[in-house]
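Why do we care about 3D structure at all? Because function follows from shape, and shape follows, mostly, from sequence. That is the central idea of this module. The next example makes it concrete: a single protein chain, its amino acid sequence, and then its structure expressed as tokens.
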Amino acid sequence: MAIDKDLVVRTALRMLDREGLERLSLRRIAAELDVKAPALYWHFESKRALLDHMADAVLTPALPDLEDPGDAARWPDWLAHTADLIRSRLLAHPDGAQLALGADLTRATALLRIVERTVEVLHHAGFGLADASRAAASFLWFVVGRTVEEQTLPDPASMRRQARANPSILSRAMAERTAPDDQDVSFRFGVRIMVAGMRALIEEERAVG
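And the structure:
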């Protein structure tokens, strides 16, 4: 059977959806494709390389929606939209966020384009170029890392039951988070904190300048 990179990536994503990342291996993908494992090493030097290409396939559909905000003052809305978009693409697959964790941007080129566009937007918003790249990295670390955590948490109902059984202030706080869409609310709250911090830094930079 002739195989190419796209076929291997599509197969790997189907297996990810079916069985999760822990059970995904080049050997098992080769068995699914009815080829010997060494055949895959013509296309992927390691499992990490395969994960990078999988991350690229997952995030590429988001790119058309990341248009330039036009008005530089609309950067907070653009960041919030981008955060939601990346998260939704990663949540579309079990363990999807872990694909992007530590990805090599020379292979995960969709993620590279997202990083570049974020740097561009933040630079136009008022950050110096170096700080725009730092802010973009922090923002994307939050989005990916928070989504990884979301995909590994116990179900919300179980967390609330545990919180009600424990009298600590953190548990009482968790017990009050009863909205069925609490993960969405919490994620967007975190993005608001990121945006507020960036806005304060931009204003501080302008005041100094």
